[in-house]
Amino acid sequence: MNLEELKPKVTNILAQEQLSVEHRLEEICNVLRDNISYYNWVGFYFKNGDKNELKLSSFAGEPTDHTIIPFGKGICGQVAESNSNFVVPDVKAQDNYIACSITVKAEIVVPLFVNGKNIGQIDIDSNTIDPFTDKDERFLEFVNAEVAKVLEK
Ligand code: SME
């Protein structure tokens, strides 16, 4: 399934108001991981209350030890401060990187804005080197914008 075909699936999952938001986010993680061959770990991190750290919410893939990430640390912590997408074609070339698994070769993190505020992010790890294109960035921005509509309610 290509990225465009996944968009209505994401929208339909988020429309399931009988499910908790966490459960809906978990379904999105599963659908993305199951349908995009180079998405090997998919998760949402959110700002942890009033602390300057991220906390892992829903995810699909291997459990990670990195459930709390201070702002500024790793790719995720940098995006919490930069408010910009971070595409890493080769994680070995990054100094400020937190390794979750030795199989991971590339990563993309896209911030999630609610009412203009960076409140979290979607994080994808890939076991393929340099797999992400502009299409992934636009797709993940779409996913986050759809999630934001639910969180803004
Ligand atoms: N690699 C991330 C940490 C999160 S794991 O990928 C799940 C980072 O450098 O921030």
TrEMBL record:
Pfam families: GAF_2. Residues 19-151 form the GAF domain. InterPro entries: GAF, GAF-like_dom_sf. This is GAF domain containing protein. It comes from Mesonia mobilis. The lineage of its organism: Bacteria, Pseudomonadati, Bacteroidota, Flavobacteriia, Flavobacteriales.
